[in-house]
Amino acid sequence: MKTAIATVSIAGDLAEKLSAIAAAGFDGVEIFENDFLAFDRSPKDVGQMVRDHGLEISLFQPFRDFEGMPEPQRSRTFARAERKFDLMQEMGADLVLICSNVSPIALGGIDRAANDLAELGDLAAKSGIRIGYEALAWGRFVNDHRDAWEIVRRADHPNVGLILDSFHTLSRKIDPDSIRAIPGDKIFFVQLADAPNFNMDLLYWSRHFRNMPGEGDLDVTGFMRAVAATGYDGVLSLEIFNDQFRGGSPKSIAVDGYRSLLYLMDQVRRTEPGIRIPVPEMPDRVPVAGIEFVEFAADRKEATDLSAMLTTLGFHKAGKHVSKEVELWRQGGINIVINTDPRGFAHASYISHGTNVCDIGLKVADASATVARAETLGAKTFEQPVGPGELKIPAIRALGGSVIHFVDDSKDLSRVWEIEFEPVGQGGATGDAGLLRIDHLAETMNYDEMLTWLLFYRSIFDTEKTAMVDVIDPAGLVRSQAIENDDGSLRITLNGAENRRTLAGHFISEGFGSGVQHIAFETADIFKTVKALQANGFTPLVISPNYYDDLDARFGLEEDFLNDLKNSGILYDRDENGEYFQLYSPTYGEGFFFEIVERRGGYKGYGAANAQFRIAAQKRHFRAKGMPAR
């Protein structure tokens, strides 16, 4: 599997780009002409830089407005092409991209374009160069890969072939299966990009909103299946125009790009048998049976406060670690671990972030296979010294430097709680509140990290993404998108903050990094749970009475039902599938909180319509703790 990425896809000058591309594991690079023109080294020097990084120049691009030009412009385009061929020879590049003409003076006609490409093919052959012709989605006469292929076919020249770009095909809703009829040896190069499903001008959409395969809404897998079915076994390259990427870290964007290609081709290999492109072997995407545990790092004082909050939520202390200062708290199928040990990873996490969720445990079918897939896709494995009575549990690094551990039904891992923890009595424990399991985890991060973690979860685990929604905070927008599996045993909402004045931004800035900001517990009867919580001394987040007046206007609720919601501090939502109930704890620390939810009748969402009212109440709670109102 030969991989490449266009230099336009990532930030930095050409030297920074090449360093990041090589470090991510790519084999080659597309030199985007503007990156070369802005660089102050000769073509020969640039070519040597590329090779010094262990890369090859897979493509030089773009050569614009060539075919179908009237005289005298036609003669000038041929002269311009010869100069580019000389530059390419000096640089060490042997393939150039010619994109379909957009000039207002261009002349149409498939035969005219084919004749121009055939003549240019003769000139290119003298320099040992091949020409790849690509249909731009906004080309004046050629904007469909089927027309581009017909032009290449009629040109009938060994040095003239087709370049396919997933965005140009999919953005125009052209059936990618039409590619299957093209001979694989006449496809010279394949460029890949995904994008969110916007309805806008094609050129603007392409220049600002492309992203990595798997991060958007286009059927890049279907496109690539069709390409692979032709017998194509050449370079797979990323050409991404994205405003966010241009301001991001070159290294992280390059790593995301390489991961996206591995993920894409693993999916293609599993659904399109007999392809010629060699794809690294890895286990399939991992089904998750549930969230086995959530672990907090804390010091002893803050652990006392956290334990008190868990107690009012109906949790009881169920175990003490055999060799460390670690406690296990339980309710229903929920395991909460509080780690105050002054050694190891959790302590380092506390020093860096304060009290925080440092570790998540997921129940999978095969823990070792899960780590193997994650590692193939570029995730970093995690290990620390195993103490007395501890198991070695497979793990990888995750958001904000946290860890995800994996347990399965193997002999030892299935007994982790018995092996590592001694049971303790429940004397003095409050009453069970009917919490059954973790409904979802909410991870908060800077907005420019969202696509990275979206790709991380989708590529490793058998999950899909929901549509992105805007969460209204009085201080700005927070973008939110969920990753979830079919049965709801794994749900993670990704929340991207754009400034530190929002509640999410405050959590990131004060906690010194991204992380889990809230945990939502599921109950089968939220009104019964509220009664149990009240008996435990739990104080819910106070919601404005104005919210309930509007709720009645929107849904026309029965008066008694509405009063029950209001008196309990429960927020309510409804969709075409069912109903959703939400109850919140006050914030803990710098913005962490717990949520209790009930889903009735197959409700699919996360109560996004209620988020702005919850956030306003949480900010009032912050102010009540000492912040002035004005």
UniProtKB/TrEMBL annotation:
EC number: 4.2.1.118
Keywords carried by this UniProt record: Lyase, Metal-binding
Domain of life: Bacteria
Catalytic activity field: 3-dehydroshikimate = 3,4-dihydroxybenzoate + H2O
Domain VOC as annotated: residue spans: 290-409, 437-586
Needed cofactors: a divalent metal cation
Gene3D superfamilies listed in its UniProt record: 2,3-Dihydroxybiphenyl 1,2-Dioxygenase, domain 1, Divalent-metal-dependent TIM barrel enzymes
InterPro entries in the record: 4OHPhenylPyrv_dOase_N (IPR041736), DSD (IPR043700), Glyas_Bleomycin-R_OHBP_Dase (IPR029068), Glyas_Fos-R_dOase_dom (IPR004360), IolE/XylAMocC-like (IPR050312), VOC_core (IPR037523), Xyl_isomerase-like_sf (IPR036237), Xyl_isomerase-like_TIM-brl (IPR013022)
UniProt: Mg(2+) binding residues: H440, H518, E595
Binding-site residues, a divalent metal cation: E134, D165, Q191, E239
Pathway entry: Aromatic compound metabolism; 3,4-dihydroxybenzoate biosynthesis
Family (UniProt): Belongs to the bacterial two-domain DSD family.
Task performed by this protein: Catalyzes the conversion of 3-dehydroshikimate to protocatechuate (3,4-dihydroxybenzoate), a common intermediate of quinate and shikimate degradation pathways.
Protein name stated in the entry: 3-dehydroshikimate dehydratase
Species of provenance: Roseibium algicola
Lineage of source species: Bacteria, Pseudomonadati, Pseudomonadota, Alphaproteobacteria, Hyphomicrobiales
